[in-house]
Specification:
It contains 20 helices and no strands. By secondary structure, the chain is mostly helical. The radius of gyration is 21 Å and the shape is globular.
Amino acid sequence: MSQREQFVSRLGFIAAAVGMAVGTGNIWRFPRMAAQYGGGVFVLVYILALLLWSAPLLMVEMAIGRKTRMGPIGGFRDFIGQKFTWMGGWMVAVCMLITFYYAVVTGWCAKYFVLAMQGAFRQGVDTAAVWNNFLHNRWQNLLFQAVAIALCGLIIYKGIQKGIERINKILVPSLFLFLVVAAVRAVTLPGASLGLSYLFVPDWSKLADPATWLQAFTQSAWSTGAGWGLMLTYAVYTSRKDDIPQNCLVVGFGDNSAALLAGLAVIPTIFALSPSLEVARASLSDNMGLTFISLAGLFPKMKGGLVIAPLFFLAMLFAALSSLIAQVELGARALMDFGWTRRKSTLVVILACLVFGLPSAAFPSFLLNQDWVWGMALLVSGFWTMLAARKYGLEKLRKEINTGADLKLGRWWAFILKYISPVIFLVVTGWW
């Protein structure tokens, strides 16, 4: 194992971990979910999901990685015993299967940044046709998938300090800056107030809708990376003196902040520039079309839209790339734990991404099916993480996490993982 590899600073780790958490789901999924499930009510439940599910699991992951200095497979083995190694294997397998198609999505973001830079989204352009033509052009999808994977592989090959830490110190601040610029422009559009109301004014009737809770907790698990094994992997390279509770809360609320900024950038724009309320609501019910069709078609109607469009799609590209980097590093770390070099591990993982990502690049319907299947698998990964903490001993783990931490965990943390989180898992998966 590469014992010498370590993040140079806490800031570098935070940047990488926030980059890991903030992905395309913050930008195209959170605004849509918030708009459909009660606005302010969804936001409140989303924050609750962070505190009751995602943040506690992130803390467990970080504790495992820091203690064992191993990725998920070796980490689970050394943490709770040889017979539980399969839990880490499950985590790696699920993350890699997601990575195979997430690289394709990253390629989409790269393509749309190029289109925006070329001024392709002008008045009168049929953005639905642009999207559909690209989506069904297999060679272009394969090309941009390959570009995304190659770029990611180069960063991983350079290691923690010169690769992951250095690039995330650029990507993450830039991502937030671009989202702030897009959000400020959106909320100052005439008619943006309706979008702001749609996002933040609570529809309390949605609080009794199980779908609101399901979507909020699912979004939080997906978005923060809880249960992916990504935080566990990055924790391998942290100092044993790092403040686990504080770091995980910073990452969690950083992720939530990015989602809210994306909501401010997207929803007011949709309502301000759509020809009618019906069209605006229909746009928000779309999935990938919300970003690649509706918003792409609205940017030309916005003053300064030809500048905002490239910034917006560059923010999406940075979000996708920073998450993809963490996913590929997880795969590489798993191989390095078996004695492989970083160079060999990185090469094998990026080749696997190229080969096993081919179906998603060539057949969009296959990709959408994968998104649903492995979303469920991630929740199961979170459940394994919770069981590992209970097997190890929640009070014992809490005391270890508190060692050297400025922000101390109380007994409430163990109570959440012992009683509340399992109930959440059963309810969410039961309603899936």
